[in-house]
Amino acid sequence: MDIKNTINDLVEKYFEEIVSLRRKLHTYPELSKHEKETSTLICSELDKMGISYRNDIYGYGIFGFVDGKNPESKCVALRADMDALPIKEMTDLPFASKNEGVMHACGHDIHMASLLGTIKILNEMKEHFSGRVMFIFQPSEEEYPGGAVSMLKAGIFNEIKPSSIMAFHCTPEMECGHVALKEGKLMASTDEIYITVKGKGGHGATPHLDIDPIVAACHIVTALQTIVSRNANPTMPTTFSVGRFIGEGRTNIIPSEVKLECIIRTFNEDWRKRCHELIHQISENTAKAFGAEADVFIDPGYPFVYNNPELTRKVRKLAEEILPEGYVEDAGMRMTAEDFSYFAQVVPACYFRIGTHIEGEPVANLHTAYFNADEDVLKTSMALESYLAIKNLE
Q: Of 35, 141, 375, 385, which is the active-site residue?
């Protein structure tokens, strides 16, 4: 049996059906921890295939197996995330979101549809491979603490632990169907920082009687930038950003407090811990210099994504086998974060990117109201996921 030809034939067989499923998922997106109808749709498709699964894992998560011959011999896993974003869609697509203010602006509809198509292909080929393929539909990737760590805590690997896990992400700045990989560190850790600067409110015309938290907070924002510019090793990617600055005064009212909301991202756990120390030190001491106080709360988020080098080299080789020449590229490190990192801490993992750019159209980035994907990407993703699963079981 020619595995590649069989997979490609089945991709063509199921392509239109999977496109239709993608559009249904896109039309009715759901936010993190609210993926009820999304989960119902996925389960109904699995029921049609006669595949057993478990659902309601950490809310609406789903996992199960496609068993080949000798299923106990080896297991590999494939993962897709399920949740959408709180963004009002502006694409004017005929299948645009009907859930007001919610949109699949990160391509998770593509991820889910591709995995469903891959399951269909593997289920039809199950007499031609040994072992089993675990599939994971994971909720709440976009909202901390995230569905990955929560599904792991729920025990999805307790009975059957895969030897490896793989997943991909849509990438609109790459040409449709191109695949990019990188061994080792790929995506950053992320932590959320909440700082409350407390002063003494009063009349804007009598600042000498007040302790102005606005001024103190402005200096804190400026000083915190030195974590990257003067404390980080220049060879260690690090980014710090303040995304929210709330001072509820008026033109003639100095408020009593200011709230800051920030993120810090990097690629080293020791340096990450040191960043937390610096955030406390800089914020508290800068506020003190102005007679104010700073309360700092750091909510630790996802660790950085680490691609197992041996597995990633194998995935690259297999991608080059099934994709057209020149379609496999090198990926760079990104400061974006992904809770797939929790899976990568438990088993060897490979997270890669697949291009979704629509030829002739401007790039609409992820997490924007105009994001859309060339649906031909599903041909690449289904073929590649199927081939990776089967070949990694050998």
A: 375
Contact assessment for residue 303 and residue 351, using Cβ atoms and an 8 Å cutoff:
no
Radius of gyration from C-alpha coordinates of the chain:
24
The sign of the torsion formed by the CA atoms of 80, 354, 3, 159 equals: negative
C-alpha span between 342 and 96 (Å, rounded): 32
pLDDT tens-place string over residues 183-236: 999 999 999 999 999 999 999 999 999 999 999 999 999 999 999 999 999 999
- 30 and 173 inside one domain: yes
pLDDT digits (tens, 9 = 90+) for 280-326: 999 999 999 999 999 999 999 999 999 999 999 999 999 999 999 99
Confidence of residue 93 (pLDDT cuts 50, 70, 90): very high
**In terms of Cα–Cα distance, which of 350, 379, 381, 368 is closest to 103?**
368
- Check whether 1 has a pLDDT greater than 80: no
Q: Report the SS3 class of residue 391.
A: helix
Residues 157, 202, single domain; the answer is no
Contacts of 95 (CB under 8 A, 6+ apart): 23, 24, 26, 27
- In this prediction the pTM is 0.94
**How is residue 133 written in tokens?**
């393929």
Q: Which of 302, 342, 351, 387 is catalytic?
A: 302
342 catalytic per annotation: no
For residue 235, the enclosing domain spans: 189-300
Measured distance CA(110)–CA(367) in Å, rounded: 14
Among 255, 273, 300, give the residue marking a domain's end. Answer: 300
Nearest to residue 263, comparing CAs of 196, 194, 193? Answer: 193
Q: Which amino acid is at 305?
A: V
Q: Nearest CA to 174 among 34, 380, 385, 388? A: 380
Q: Is 375 a catalytic residue?
A: yes
Do 179 and 196 belong together in one domain? no
- DSSP code at position 232: S
